[in-house]
Amino acid sequence: MNLSSRHIPWGALGPWLALLATCIFFTTQSDRFLTGENLSLVLQQVMVVGVLAIGQTLIILTAGIDLSCGMVMALGGMVMTKFAVNYGIDPYAAIACGLAVTTGFGLLNGLLVTRIKLPPFIVTLGTLNIAFAITQIYSNAQIVSNLPTELTALGNTFDLGSTEVSLGTVAMIGLYLLAWFVLRDTAPGRHLYAVGNNAEAARLTGIRVDRVLVAVYALAGLFYGIAALLSVARTGVGDPNAGQTENLDAITAVVLGGTSLFGGRGIILGTLVGAVIVGVFRNGLTLMGVASVYQTLITGILVILAVAADQMSRKGPR
Predict the structure, then answer these.
(1) Reduced to 3 states, what is the DSSP secondary structure of residue 166?
(2) H/E stretch holding 119
(3) Which CATH number do you get for residue 106?
(4) Residues whose CB is less than 8 angstroms from the CB of residue 212 and which lie 6 or more positions away in sequence, other chains included
(5) Phi–psi pair at 238, nearest 5 degrees
(6) Would you say residue 306 has pLDDT above 80?
(7) Terminal Cα-to-Cα distance of the chain (whole angstroms)
(8) pLDDT of residue 278 exceeding 80
(9) Domain assignment present for 317
């Protein structure tokens, strides 16, 4: 644990340097990039993936992975919107139902991983397809519109100087700060890192590994539900086709943020930086007039480089 801790600051510094270099580059390419309005837009564009990536980070820190996060988010959004619009349920109760559904999916993932001992990749690949099918069947592949204001409130903005800032952006940053505090300064956070470093050693020290894993997957599901609410607030509709690429975007943010895919090493704030890096790349390339297919290409290259750097950093101390 001490060895890993000594390397965390260096792992945390890399994403910040990458973000700085990226911003400098795009500032030289477009006069519109480094403006309050554009930077606020970048944060609005990444807030959904950013919150998804919090849950994904928790799971990856335990040496797991969750491929289902995007589709679970879509299902949660459909439950919230249909309950509020089609069934006339109180909007806050509808939100709670959506959060319960996504948390339930996370709990299911955790139980399958811990009780049946299935690999997280296989489990979440299965629940991805299950969530997708349920979303399409439940929604009849129809968008839900005319939402009550309670469901879209986080899409509202306020003035910060001359820049409009989304309430959803503030919520995302607040969730990151909360997660950072819990992981750094509480016993559950330390237990999570211990399980990710070496599950068997953690078990021998008295940590209930299975309980930690189930709690992590369930908590991740809760974050997916919050991301669903942010998605609904940003778009103003319940979209059954949402979330089809967000799972990969969330994993990309985690990897670019310096969290090891092998578990036990990473800082949650790095994930926020990773999500912003992806958002900055896409925004900057759009301002430069680069086609979206090249944006995807560059993002893929960045992921490979980040994983390669993680591999080399793991081999270095040995």
Answers:
(1) strand
(2) none
(3) 1.10.3470
(4) 62, 188, 191, 192, 195, 202
(5) -95, 115
(6) no
(7) 14
(8) yes
(9) no
Extract the tokens encoding 50: 């950013």
pLDDT at 171 over 50: yes
What integer is the mean pLDDT of 237-265?
90
What's the pLDDT at 315? 67
Query: pLDDT at position 20, please?
Result: 92
Rounded-to-integer distance, Cα 102 and Cα 137, Å: 17
CB count within 10 Å of CB 282 equals 20
Query: Residue 69 in contact with residue 224, Cβ under 8 Å?
Result: yes
Residue 316 covered by a domain: no
Query: Whole-model pTM?
Result: 0.92
Q: What CA–CA distance (Å, rounded) separates 105 from 94?
A: 17
Query: In which residue are the tokens 């690429």 written?
Result: 245
* Mean pLDDT of the region 143-147: 94
Q: How far apart (Å, rounded) are the C-alpha atoms in residues 209 and 161?
A: 48
Dihedral sign for Cα atoms in the order 275, 277, 283, 285: negative
CB atoms within 10 A of CB 7: 16
Q: Is residue 318 part of a domain?
A: no
* Helix or strand holding residue 118 (H, E): none
170 lies in which domain range? 2-311
Rounded CA-CA distance 303/283 in Å is 18
Residue 316 pLDDT:
57
- Report the domain count for the chain: 1
Long-range contacts of 31-39 (CB under 8 A, 24+ apart): 32/287, 33/283, 33/284, 33/287, 36/160, 36/161, 36/162, 36/163, 37/163, 37/164, 38/283, 38/287, 39/163
What b-and-e string marks burial along 180-191, b requiring 16 or more CB atoms within 10 Å of the CB? bebbeeeeebeb
Query: Residue 102: phi, psi to the nearest 5?
Result: -65, -40
In 3D space, the residue among 196, 294, 226 whose CA is nearest the CA of residue 54 turns out to be 226
Pick from 104, 76, 45, 53: which is nearest to 248 by CA?
Answer: 53
User: Helices 69-85 & 120-139, crossing angle to 10 degrees?
Assistant: 30
In a domain, 292, yes or no: yes
Task: Give kind and range of the element (H or E) at residue 67.
Answer: none
